[in-house]
Amino acid sequence: MSSSQSTKALASTGFTPTGSATVVDVEQVEAALVEHYPRLVRLAYLVLPPGLGRNRRVLTAHALVQRALPRSRTTTPVLPEQRNPASRGTDPGYAYVRCQVLRAALDAGRPLLRLARPRRAQLPPLLPQVWGLRLFPRSGGADELALDQRLSALPGPARAAYVLRGLERLTDDEVRRVLEAVGVDTDRQDGAHAEAIDAALAEAGAQTPPGVRSPAALLESPEFDPCLLRARPTDLMRRRQHLKALGIAAVAALVCGALLGMPGDGWGPDGAAAPPYAKNPAAEAALDPARLTRAAPAAWKESARTDFSVWPARGELADDEGLLRRALAVWARPGKSVRVSATPGTVTGAPPGPARLLFAGPVDSARVVLLYDGLRVVRYAEPLDGTSGAALDFARVDGAGTADAGAVVVGRADGNVRYLTAPWVREAAVQDLLEPTATPSALRRTADGVTAPFASPALARACTSWNTLRLRDREGAARLATDLGELVPAHLTAGRPDAPREATPADWSRTACSLAAARSHGVRTVNAWSYAAQALPDGSGEAKWVCTRAETWRGGGGRALAQFLAPGARTAAVAAKAEGEPACGVREPSVLAGVLWKSATGSWYVLAGGSKDVASLAVSGGQRSPGNTLAVRSSQGARPTLTGRLDDGRTLRTLR
After folding, report:
1. Cβ distance 406 to 295 under 8 Å?
2. pLDDT digits (tens, 9 = 90+) for 307-331
3. Which of 55, 408, 456, 513 is paired with 614 by a 20 to 30 Å CA distance?
4. Tens digit of each residue's pLDDT (9 = 90 or more) over 418-430
5. What pLDDT sits at residue 132?
6. Is 646 in contact with 613 (CB distance < 8 Å)?
7. DSSP sequence for 450-488
8. In this structure, what DSSP letter does residue 533 have?
9. Segments of 489-628 assigned E as strands
10. Beta bridge partners of 362
């Protein structure tokens, strides 16, 4: 575009070029702020120093964005990312307000100096304020936790560089220009401004995102969304005091201090629980350890149901009333020091009534309690030497059957996992799916059914092995389950989605690594279906098409992957994927996918495979093929469109 054309384009949007900067009106900045408000708040939340605490970071992030409006017309530098028409940087209003938010977020991380006047961002925000509640984003999975820890270890400029790369998708040159615009390290007197920015870029680049997901996907997760919040009460006892006399208030403060175990973490009757907020018979009954229900040891043998409701109470601490009381109290009122996690779609509120006790005992370096309320399995864990650092995990298990209720995670440590197995489990073993012909390794269990630890694939960065739990019940049926970072392992099946069977290691030997895409997603079952086979056009063998679909406990949000298995390849290649679509599932078993494939002779082909109910396939350009497979000559970089026609006349499109 010529300079005159560029000037006309700017004028058409209401912006007037002024040298190397663009004049921006207050109304234009306000429009950009309103349109991108959730993203700007997320940006501020990620860059703010983690030492502020999650509640103050949320409120400060909103305050910084709301204070970013200029008082009058102002100018903003023309940043490099404006070259990309699809970028938000094309809007000078957004570029201005982003710089303002970044500058204030970095100021908030500066230390307070004794003789210097504090900057506004260094002080707690006057507005917004929420009285009586603590607000924080919902907890994420293992990948989000690892990323949060890494960002916490970075200084402010490096944290800003990482977020601009991942969230805003800027190049290093564009990040450097933004950091210069917000004045990174301009207080230095030695002229090392550029060196400081280079150091920030280097530190940010050294932080590899955890797991297999991209930095953008992690930074855009609900874990870092200050607009999607959870609330917890705070200072409830103190707010009841109001305007009582000074003497009565002093006595009440002493009583509250004693009840809450001040100072320190304390080992009061409720441990790490927050102050009580309910005094009604139903709530008190649910929190009374004496009213916990317990199944008879042999109930599972006589019951028509074989789920968590017939698990007997096990563990050497099953009669420890103090431990059970703390577990129930923390479940109802998790305090500030309690780490709470839940699978997607799982509510984290108090039990509706007396829960069922499944297990209570020491596991590694913690005391663990497992509870079940008919909808959820809840795991409470506290250190052996106190209650500080207690953890509370929720998993949805409504409608579980024999295959789903075979095991529950009781502990994780050093990349290993331990399970509590169901009372009907006769044998437990570890099977590496990548070595399907290897003999499963027997897994020792205690008298209570707790397995020995073994390496879990849930947090592994490289897919060099994929250990699964192999359970055999009293009737001799064997089932495979895999750890995906949640309390309940996912059940592995194989075959057509509307008639699945128990999976064998051979069913998953070349597609096991694709299970990483379902981590921390609330997965109940994962099915592998080899839906088509086709001879390769160069005569090098037969390829297979496999669809793997993960179904969740909440019913929606299923994920499907279509994978291409070339002859001789150790692992499959992902050809297409979809989330929230019925394809390759019980409701819609039909599936179609295609790949651009290069033969050993260097020729390029479009290969496609559909399920058995596909009568014919067509590729853009008019070429058709009868049956459910297709092979057509093509060229490198081609992006053809594939469609299929089902036996009943309906049109089927590729998985997406």
Report:
1. no
2. 999 999 999 999 999 999 999 999 9
3. 513
4. 999 999 999 999 9
5. 66
6. yes
7. BBPPEE-STT-SS-S--EEEEEEETT--EEEEE--SSSS
8. E
9. 490-494, 501-502, 523-535, 542-552, 559-565, 573-579, 592-598, 604-610, 614-619, 623-626
10. 367
